[in-house]
Amino acid sequence: MKHIILNIFLAISLLGFSQEDEKMQIDKVLTDWHKAASNADFENYFGLMTKDGVFLGTDATENWQNKEFRAFSKPYFDKGKAWSFTAVERNIYVNVEAGFAWFDELLDTQMELCRGSGVLKKENEEWKIAHYVLSIAIPNENVKDIVIAKKKNDSILKSRLKNKKM
To answer: What residue ranges carry the coiled-coil annotation (predicted)?
Structure first.
């Protein structure tokens, strides 16, 4: 009986270490990804994403599939200056057995504080970003002013999207 309990304890302990190790690897991937953008390192930046990766930007029209996001981003990287995001807070959650993870992060950016979140999946023993969402963090007391500022553009976009469905 002692051996069974000891084996269960060891298995749980190893799973805990494995999960922490995976979180450290994921943290490094995300940090390296942001660093690649800051350094305008196009190949490394997109090398840390899956081939079918998606990037959702702060504009309602920015639902970039990998190929389109590459095309959009290339001129910024070619100029030697893409964007600079630094995580000031990050939470990582891992399902080691299924080979995927999700995260959220608070970022210091040229747009002030932003929120990033997304999903990574493990491909060939490497964590890759499969889906990333960037949003501007707006203090609750400023939401009303932001809604007023974007109302006209949102109305036009909603109308266009509704007509597109028909």
So the answer is: none
Q: How many CA atoms lie within 13 A of 11 on its CB side?
A: 6
CA atoms within 13 Å, Cβ hemisphere of 77: 17
Stated pTM of the model: 0.86
- Number of domains within the chain: 1
Secondary structure tally for the chain: helices H, strands E: 4, 6
Q: Please give the single-letter amino acid code of residue 87.
A: A
Chain-centre distance for alpha carbon 130: 8
- CB under 8 Å to 29, separation ≥6 — which residues? 48, 120, 127, 128, 129
CATH code of the domain covering residue 118: 3.10.450.50
C-alpha distances in Å from residue 110, one per residue of 33, 42, 113, 136, 142: 17, 19, 8, 11, 19
| H/E segment holding residue 44 | helix 42-47
For residue 150, is it within any domain?
Answer: no
For residue 148, name the pLDDT band (cuts at 50, 70, 90).
Answer: very high
